[in-house]
Each structure stands twice: as C-alpha cells, then as structure tokens.
Amino acid sequence: MRRSVEAAPFHGVAPLRIGTCTTSAIARSGLGTARARPVRDRMREQGRGSSKARRTLPVLMEKDKLQRIPEPTIQRLPLYYRCLSDLRDSDREVVSSEDIASRIPGVKASQFRKDLSYFGEFGVQGVGYLVEPLLERISGILHLDRQHDVALVGAGNLGSALLNFAGFRQWGFHITRVFDSDPDKVGRTVGGLVVENANAIPALGGVSIGIIAVPTFAAPAAARALARAGCIGLLNFSGAKLILPPPISVRNVDLTNELSILSYKLAGLDPRHAGD
Predict the structure, then answer these.
(1) What is the pLDDT of residues 250-261, one digit of tens each?
(2) How many other CB atoms sit within 10 Å of the CB of residue 197?
(3) Residue range(s) defining the domain that contains residue 248
(4) Nearest Cα to Cα of residue 44 among 99, 117, 96, 94
(5) Between the CA of residue 59 and those of 37, 117, 250, what are the distances in Å?
(6) What is the CATH number of the domain that holds 104?
(7) Is residue 266 part of a domain?
(8) Which one-letter DSSP state was computed for residue 44?
C-alpha cells in the first residue's frame, strides 16, 4: 500500500468534416477568393486574436472564471496542442472538431468545442478552425509561448534521462540547473550542466518549476527546498505522493504505479498468467 508523504508547510450548422485540406482545397472551397476573404479573416481573428489580447489573456479572464475551469479540460489542452502541432507539421491549414476528436482517443467533437468555449470564440461554423492560429491561442493559454526555466533535483539515472529528453525544450521547458546530494555526483557534468550541491537549492531564485527525480525518502526535503527557492510548480517522479499547500501545484508521476496497473490488467488478458 503506497504511503502519502506530506511536505511541511513553509513560508447553427455542425462543423464540416474537412479531412486533408491543402491550400488548393481552401481555394476550391472559396475561402481564398476575394468575395469570401472576410470569412477567412474572421477565422483568423477568432483563432488568433490580436497580439495584445494574446499577451493579456490571463488578465482579461477573471480570476474566478479561471478557477472554475474543470480540471479535465485543463488536462486535455496539452492533447489538443500536440494534435494541432502534428497537423501544422503535416501542412494542414484547416481542421474540424470531428477530425480533432478522431485523433484523440476518448475525446468527442462536442467536448473539444466545449473545452475551447471556456477561453473565448474559435473557428467558424460550417468551416472549422485554422490550425496555426488555434495552435497559437492554445499555446498562449498554456503559457507555452514563452521559455520556462526548470530546476532538476536528482542527477541519477532518471534525472540524467530527463536532462537529455529533447521534448522538454520543444515545448519551452529548459532545465537550467541540476542538483544532487551525492558528493560523487556533485561537480560532474550531466546533459551539459554541472551538478550542484543540493544545499544550494534554497538560494536558486528565478525558477518557478522544479522536477524531483530522487528516491522516495528524499522527496519531501527536495520539495521543501524547491518551494523555499520560489518554485510553485513541481513535477515529482520520486514515487512519493507529495502534498503541498497552495499556491504550489504538484504533479505526481509514479512510473512503478503505472506498471503495476498494467500488470494487473495483463493478468486477465495474457494466457501466460492463466491460473495464477
């Protein structure tokens, strides 16, 4: 049975299924003609918004409204971001909600539209969404349109793997400092960064996100140190379920827990486990 470890407090028409849509397809649809250009401009305006609006999105949305956004909606936004990124990379210009839903298991077109509605108006009925502007809007909502400096605690096997994971930088997360309490690791270069002594974490400053990749017993101390340093977002790979007071947000990722669930599910599917 896994134990929770609590760190001490501290100071109209349904959108049209478009399928693969190229520039020539847009021209055939009439969106590229001078007569229909206002429609295309309206799509861009709703999908992109002004640069000032994108920069001030959190200010324009009331704080209480942000707090009322359902957690499942927030968890689906990165899925939409990744899907739209893939569509952009494949040169898609327009996409429908049905197409988005078909690419994300468990998401319905109506759910996608409802999730977007929490953040404003998007797309045009009967036409769909312009991929690039919508991607930019979701990037702004998730604050992925800026660089986030990240501190990593733990320079062991898992920490080293995280340091070398290119996906973080692609989404704007840059690990800029790495710490460890093991004297044999301090001073070594891992992933292009020199490992610093964990005692220096409280004086970190300028970093709002921390990643914890230490053994379970060391996780609460690492979390407290990162919080003192000003980190208000923690991604925890230690296996301990950390619970910290607001405003600190913690995402606990337990890889062994996930494998255990898979093991349980395998027991009913894998004939090699029959009779166990």
Answers:
(1) 999 999 999 999
(2) 14
(3) 148-258
(4) 94
(5) 31, 17, 24
(6) 1.10.10.10
(7) no
(8) H
